[in-house]
Design goal:
The chain is an alpha+beta fold. The protein has seven helices and 24 strands. The strands form five sheets. Strands 2-11-15-13-12-16 form a six-stranded antiparallel barrel. Strands 3-10-8-5 form a four-stranded antiparallel beta sheet, with no helix packed on it. The two termini are 82 Å apart.
C-alpha cells in the first residue's frame, strides 16, 4: 500500500515538472514567434519626423549691475563734516554729496595769495631796477663812444643792465608760479566739496560723518559712495568657450531673476569679451568662460524700453524707500540667449540620432571586429533608424542645430518618416540595418521648440 502511494507521488511530481517545462517553452516560443506569425522582432518606440521651428539657446548665469556706475572717491584728504545724503537717495548732477573740513586748505589759499602779492612786488622792483640799469647803460655807451669813460666802466654798466633784465624775467616767472600755486590751492579747497558727477541713485554709502578719508591725485583714495543709473541695467554672464562661438552681438535674450520666478524680462547681447576668464586653472576642474554682457531692454525700474536708452523718464526710486525697485544691483538671474533659429526644419527627437562605425559595417561584424583589433581607423557617422514595416533601415543624416528635445536634420530625411526613438540601448547599440522590429509610435509635439545648451 505504501509502495503504491509512493509511486503515485513520483508520477505526480514528474507530471508537474513536465507541465512547468512546457509552459516555459511555450512562453519562449511565443516570444520567438514559434506560434502564429514567426519572429516578433525587437520592441522599439518611434516618432514621426516632422517640420518644426527650432530655436537654439545658450543658457548662462550672472548678476544684475547698472550699465553706468561711478565710484566716488575724494581727491583730497580730510574729515567729513557734512554728509547730506543717505543710501538709496536719488541725486541730480551737481548735488552736494559730502563736505570735508577745509580749514587747512583755506589757509593754503591765503598763503598762496600772499605769495602772489609778494611776487608781484618783487616784479615791480625788478622793473624799476631794469629801467635804471638801461639808462645807465645808454649813458655809459655814449660816453664810451666819445672816449670819455674807460672800456671797463662801459662793460660794468652793460653787465649790470643784462643782470637787471635777467632778474626781471625771473621775477615774471615767479609771479606765474605764484599764480599757479594759488590756482592749485583754490582747486584743493574746492575739492573739499564733493558733488554728484551724474544723475542717478546712491547705491552704496561707505562712510559716515566725522570719518576721515584719504584722497590722492595719482590713484583712487577711499571709496565713499557709488552713484548708479538704475534705469539702465545689465547682466554680466559667463558663457562656456564651446557656446560663445554661437553668440553674436544684438542676439535677443530672455532673463529670469531668482527674486522674480514668475516674471521674465527681455534683453539683448551688447558685448562679448575677447579674453577668457579661467577658473581652477591647471586642475582637472578647469573651466574656460567668456564674459558676455546682456542689457535689460524692458527695465521696470524706470519704465524705460530699448527706445529710451540713455534717458531718465522719471525719478528712479522714491525718495523714501525703494520698494518699487524691481531689479536691484547684485540680483542673480538666468539668461537664455537665442543664437539661431531654423524655420520649417525637418526635426527628429534627439535620442533618435546615434552614431555607427561605417568601417565596421562595411567589413561585417567578424572582419570588422578583427580590423578594429588591428587598429584600423574608425569611420563614425551620424545615423537614424527608420521603421519600414516590421524592419529597421539605417539612414545616414547630417544634423544642424538642436534643442533640448529635437534636432534639425539637414540631409538624409524629407519629413514624414517614422524614426526609432527608443529604448536607448536599442538605438545606441542593438539596432542593425534590416533587423526585425515592433514599433510603438509616439505622438510628437508639433510647433516651435527652443534649444537649451549650457
Amino acid at each position: 500500500m505504501a509502495s503504491s502511494k509512493s509511486t503515485s507521488n513520483r508520477m505526480l511530481y514528474a507530471g508537474g515538472g513536465l507541465l512547468l517545462v512546457l509552459l516555459v517553452a511555450g512562453g519562449l516560443g511565443w516570444q520567438l514567434g514559434w506560434f502564429g506569425g514567426g519572429e516578433r522582432g525587437l520592441q522599439v518606440e518611434s516618432e514621426r519626423a516632422e517640420r518644426r521651428t527650432i530655436t537654439e539657446v545658450v543658457t548662462a548665469f550672472g548678476r544684475a549691475q547698472p550699465e553706468v556706475e561711478v565710484e566716488i572717491s575724494p581727491d583730497v584728504s580730510g574729515e567729513i563734516v557734512e554728509l547730506p545724503v543717505k543710501e538709496g537717495d536719488v541725486v541730480q548732477q551737481g548735488d552736494l554729496l559730502a563736505r570735508l573740513k577745509a580749514d587747512d586748505y583755506r589757509a593754503a589759499v591765503e598763503r598762496a595769495e600772499a605769495g602772489v602779492s609778494e611776487a608781484k612786488a618783487t616784479l615791480a622792483q625788478r622793473k624799476a631796477d631794469s629801467v635804471q640799469a638801461r639808462r645807465t647803460y645808454d649813458r655809459q655807451k655814449k660816453l664810451y663812444e666819445k672816449e670819455v669813460v674807460s672800456a671797463s666802466d662801459f662793460e660794468d654798466a652793460k653787465s649790470t643792465y643784462e643782470q637787471a633784465v635777467a632778474q626781471l624775467q625771473a621775477a615774471r616767472f615767479r609771479v606765474e608760479s605764484a599764480r599757479a600755486d594759488l590756482q592749485d590751492a583754490r582747486e584743493q579747497l574746492q575739492k573739499t566739496r564733493i558733488y554728484a558727477p551724474m544723475s542717478g541713485t546712491l547705491t552704496r554709502l561707505e562712510v559716515e560723518e566725522g570719518e576721515r578719508v584719504v584722497g590722492t591725485q595719482q590713484r583712487a583714495g577711499t571709496e565713499m559712495m557709488r552713484v548708479s543709473r538704475l534705469g539702465q541695467m545689465e547682466l554680466e554672464v559667463d558663457v562656456n568657450e564651446s557656446d560663445v562661438v554661437n553668440v553674436a552681438s544684438r542676439d535677443s535674450a530672455t532673463i529670469e531673476f531668482d527674486a522674480h520666478p514668475d516674471r521674465s524680462f527681455q534683453g539683448a547681447v551688447t558685448e562679448i569679451a575677447n579674453s577668457a576668464r579661467i577658473q581652477n586653472e591647471g586642475s582637472q576642474n578647469e573651466v574656460t568662460n567668456f564674459p558676455v554682457t546682456i542689457r535689460v531692454l524692458d527695465n521696470p525700474n524706470t519704465g524705460l524700453t530699448s527706445g529710451d536708452e540713455g534717458a531718465i523718464a522719471r525719478p528712479e526710486v522714491p525718495r523714501e524707500g525703494a520698494r518699487s525697485l524691481v531689479i536691484r544691483p547684485g540680483m542673480s538671474g538666468a539668461v537664455d540667449i537665442y543664437t539661431e533659429t531654423a524655420e520649417a526644419a525637418v526635426a527628429v527627437p534627439i535620442q533618435a540620432v546615434t552614431v555607427r562605425d561605417f568601417a565596421e559595417t562595411r567589413s561585417g561584424d567578424a572582419s570588422g571586429a578583427a580590423a578594429q583589433g588591428d587598429g584600423a581607423a574608425e569611420d563614425l557617422r551620424r545615423v537614424v533608424f527608420v521603421a519600414e514595416g516590421d524592419s529597421a533601415r539605417m539612414v545616414e543624416v547630417n544634423t544642424g542645430i538642436a534643442d533640448d528635445t529635437y534636432m534639425e536634420i539637414t540631409a538624409g530625411l524629407e519629413g514624414g518618416e517614422t524614426v526609432i526613438t527608443g529604448p536607448y540601448s536599442a538605438v545606441s547599440r542593438e539596432l542593425e540595418p534590416g533587423m526585425k522590429i515592433q514599433t510603438g509610435e509616439q505622438e510628437g509635439q508639433s510647433g516651435e521648440t527652443i534649444a537649451m545648451t549650457q
